[in-house]
Amino acid sequence: MTGRRRKPGRMGWFIDGYRAWLAGRGYAPGTVINMLAMAGDLGRWMDARDFAASDLDRVMVAEFRDAMRTAGMRNVPGAHGLDRLLQYLEHEGVRAASAVPATPVEELVQRYRRWLVGDRGLAEATVERYVKLARLFLTQRSTELVHSVENLTGTDIVAFLLQESDRLSVGSVKGRVAELRSLLKFLYLQGLTPRPLATVVPPVAGWRDTGVYGNRFIRTPNIDRLARSGLLVRYAFGTSPQCSPSRISILSGIYSHATRTEDLHTPLPNGVRLLPSYLQAQGYFTGLMAKTHLGPNGEKQFQWYSPKTAAAFSGFLDSTGTRPFFLWVAFHEPHRPYHPESVAHRHQPGRVTRSPAAVSRQTGSRPSAGRARTRRPRPGCPLRRGGAAPGRSRPRPRRPL
Q1: What share of the chain is helix, strand, coil (3-state, %, to 5)?
Q2: Contact 15, 8 (CB under 8 A)
Q3: In the beta sheet, which residues pair with residue 330?
Q4: Which residues neighbour 156 within 8 Å (Cβ) at sequence distance 6 or greater?
Q5: Fewer CB atoms near the end CB (10 Å): N or C, the chain?
Q6: Measured in whole angstroms, how far is the alpha carbon of residue 317 from the centre of its chain?
Q7: Exposed e or buried b per residue across 54-92, where buried means at least 16 C-beta atoms within 10 angstroms of its C-beta
Q8: In whole angstroms, how far apart are CA 120 and each of 110, 114, 128, 181?
Q9: How far apart are CA 58 and CA 54, in angstroms?
Q10: Which residues are registered as beta bridge partners of 285?
């Protein structure tokens, strides 16, 4: 590598092969560039300390991440940001494969992993998530794993989910339900449990499971009473495919392009009022939970904030006193993780047709407005040259996007 690019240090011998390995696994070109950049940063750090590639392990990676944070670097890899590099070096025989403890739990977890990949064909990120839950669930059983799995009951499963729900949000608990059902299905198909326990995993309640939204079999008197004393929404529509523009649009009642917040994480301009400010004028206590990205003007229009949800709800209720309240909860769960392996069949960027506005933002040019499409008057039509029909306004050209 020459020119202005920085050399990748001890990783220089492996960069080209690593690039091809990542491309072969379906990583997008932009993702490959970022992962190669992380490998280069690691290689230069190893070069300065005279570390060999064969010595690289997770302990060394953790030291590298600490050194980057200490140096004030902005793009510090995450806890698993260099896992693919370690896997590639193992694949090439540069470093020894990570040893897995030969415990009964780990042996069963590895069998489960092979089933998820081979029989179900799940994406790598999904497999890791399912395996993590399986390891957590199985390690809570007794040391005699086979005996304890054979004697699993519905009570054990519900108790585990209740324990998880105490520390997780609703969206995360829904994920636990799917992960646990998969594990229980595997245990039954492998003959490790005598009964198909996946069917006893209780689902997490959703809006369709409430009386106020028409469920005739599930009784939810507290939710129904809350709906009767407040505003019941029958239909809801998103005005933007992105999170923060959509939130600002809902809270302001204005389309995001009208408030100049159509781009992700654009702060709310000064002078634009949100719903909580109007409610405060009517005596409401207003709160905000979890994600914000409203900007200083948006966030100051709430009287209370917590980055947590369920764990902070009781504190919010204590703060309201006897006042009516408005609580805006912006969950993290709808945000899909931006990992290439999270989606098994991704779209091809080259086949996506972008709007003229998107192209103009990238190139810095403005799309042309073009001419207004007019129609020649038919015989007998009252349109006059240069004028318009009585009672009708003259057609105007379309404004640029």
Answers
A1: 50, 5, 50
A2: yes
A3: 290
A4: none
A5: N
A6: 28
A7: eebeeebbeebbeebeeeeeeebbeeebbebbbebbeee
A8: 15, 9, 14, 14
A9: 12
A10: 325
Output the tens digit of pLDDT for each of the chain's 401 residues. 444 456 788 888 899 999 998 888 777 788 888 889 889 889 888 888 888 888 888 778 888 888 888 887 767 887 677 888 988 888 888 877 665 556 888 888 889 989 998 888 887 668 878 988 998 898 877 555 556 788 888 888 888 888 887 777 676 788 888 899 999 999 999 998 888 888 878 777 777 888 899 888 888 899 899 899 888 888 878 888 888 899 999 999 999 999 999 888 889 999 999 999 999 999 999 999 988 889 999 999 999 999 888 788 889 999 999 999 999 998 776 665 555 555 555 666 666 665 565 555 556 555 454 444 444 444 444 444 444 444 444 444 444 44
Amino acid present at 290: A
Which residues, at least 6 apart from 333, have a Cβ–Cβ distance to it below 8 Å?
A: 169, 170, 171, 172, 174
Tokens of 139: 């390690």
The backbone torsions φ and ψ at residue 76, rounded to the nearest 5 degrees and listed phi first, read: -85, 130
- Could you give the strand order of the β-sheet that contains 285-290, starting from the edge strand earlier in sequence? 304-306, 285-290, 325-330
Task: Match 């009585």 to its residue by tokens.
Answer: 390
Tell me 355's DSSP state. Answer: P
Is residue 235 a contact partner of residue 246, using CB atoms and an 8 Å limit?
no
Report the length, in residues, of the chain. 401
Residue 339: count other Cβ atoms within 10 Å of its Cβ.
14
The closest of 303, 306, 330 to 247, measured between CA atoms, is: 330
